[in-house]
Amino acid sequence: MAQRTTSRDVATRAGVSQSTVSHVLTGRPGISEATRERVLAAMAELRYRPNLAARSMRTRKSGRLAVVLPLATPGVATILSGAAEAAGEAGYVLELQGLAGSAKERTHRLLDMIDTGEFEGILSFTDLPGNLDEEDEHTTVLVLPEYDEDLHVSGAMVDAGAVTEIVEQLATQGHRRFLHLAGPEEYASARARRAVYEKAIADHGLESLGVVTGPWSGRSGERAIRELPSGAPPLAVIAANDVIAAGAIRGALARGWTVPGDLSVTGWDDLPLAGVMVPALTTVSIDRRALGAYAVRRLLAAMRGDEEPPGPGSLTRVIWRESAGAPPPKEGNP
């Protein structure tokens, strides 16, 4: 049986004292960022995991963080994987807490979690109105409202700047006429994508056949295309998500229109099927993993009294594929 890696092994690999390793794990101030990074790198290389029970007895710290996420929304697993990795690199165990019920009920549940003293830090991705001043000195709470009170996407994930890139690229490919298939108005993400679309069209002097608002469904996209006048093509269709875009492609093919060709179609979310559709769908990928990792780094900084770490930059990236006239991807690179 392989011998367990110890903090002394980490100290030797990093070229620091054992107490320095301990200080990095407990978040003690006075450790330079370069030293901290060196220790964390040594931990990763040696696959070191601290003995949380022993640390708890010595420091009265549990080594546990909690992340509060709405379980019934897409992308949660990806956010959590990035958050867990960042927590593990800093020597913490991350636990998922799914809060249900109204915003008031979720706030009460969060206060109960604080009262237990089981967590050194609690990271909430849902906006929890109410008085959180009851948190004790041993628990740091950081609320990042990436989901609103109705658990709709909010915060950084609403950024719709990628729509501008899509419109500009399609215009350089020769498109002058556009259509936006929007999501429901009650979603901040739908409103943001619509606003950026309308601004991009106006800024570049392009023609818009309008904005068709509907549910996040394929039927919505298909119906919108079937109701277009016969003279609509050539047309660039900017759909607010991949499901609407798939419906738009179905509607186009039902009318005998080619995609790409008569219509160029783009979506949003980069769902697993987007890269294997026929044609493969041009879409926008959201780096939820980076969001989760950055959120935990912000929590750790708040726990240590450090300055907030630099942000991850844009979380969105346009994936150009066949549906918008891009060449088909090479095998193994959807």
TrEMBL record:
Keywords: DNA-binding, Transcription, Transcription regulation. One of its GO terms (molecular function) is transcription cis-regulatory region binding. SMART domains: HTH_LACI. InterPro entries: HTH_LacI (IPR000843), LacI/GalR-like_sensor (IPR046335), Lambda_DNA-bd_dom_sf (IPR010982), Peripla_BP_I (IPR028082). Residues 5-59 form the HTH lacI-type domain. Residues 305-334 are annotated as: Disordered. It comes from the Bacteria. This is LacI family transcriptional regulator.
